[in-house]
Amino acid sequence: MEEREIMTGVLTPRRLAPLMPYLENEEITDVDWDGSHLWVNTIHNERQLVENSEVTPEYIDALAAHISNNSSKHLNKKEEILETEVGAWRITCLHNSVAISGTAIFIRK
Length: 109
What we know:
3 helices; globular
């Protein structure tokens, strides 16, 4: 996926580096971080846990903050859910105050 398709300056391939293998895979429809684990859904209607990914809770917190800041939408205890579209992706972020195991991000391709 080219950088201009992602929305230049907001979510670049460099910023998304730990997620790019899953976002670029045409067989994957959803990339989800549940607060502690990375999951992917496939076109074959399978949900798979990704073992040993480079995604960490700290990375997700920083990514959610970046999405919030650049989409002019809030993600905090008062506004616990952030929904936005970036290119062809629908992104939902859940604040750690409502997501039991930490900040959660769901990307639907």
